Structure prediction request, 174 residues.
Amino acid sequence: MQNPDMSEEERTLWKSSPSQWLNLGPFALAIVVDLAVVVGSIFFLPAMVLSLFPIGYAVWKYLTVKCLVFELTNERLRVTSGVINQKVDEIELYRVKDSVLERQWWMRLTGLASLVLETSDRTMPRLTIPAIPDGESVREILRKQVEALRDSKRVREMDFDDVGDGGEFGDFEG
Prediction:
């Protein structure tokens, strides 16, 4: 029989970056501005140098999405971000309180979804994993792993109503 204090080795269950569909607007804007600059440079040739700015902007947007990596393990959700300087933040899975799957119209057309997590983590109380393929499966993997980890650690989530409406135990006169 395995000792309950010894946990199994951490393993990756899912790892992905958001889809570049997030950049459709910035890419389209860069193309339009670049075309305008190129057309304008017909009249003033040195203005052709300005066409590098929209291209640089599009490349930067591409890299920011590409360098945003979400990794779900059997113990935590790790978020790695940053193009030049990198930041790694983690949420212990037992801290996940709720999840919402969102699909805007363009996500439905492309088969993507965003997963929004509400957590009790101090640094990331709300985390959005944007534009991922097969969002329903990822949400289900996450849900099952959160429950399994809570059971193994004997963690329970308690919500307190702070509305002050004098509910069941609110107005005690003694």
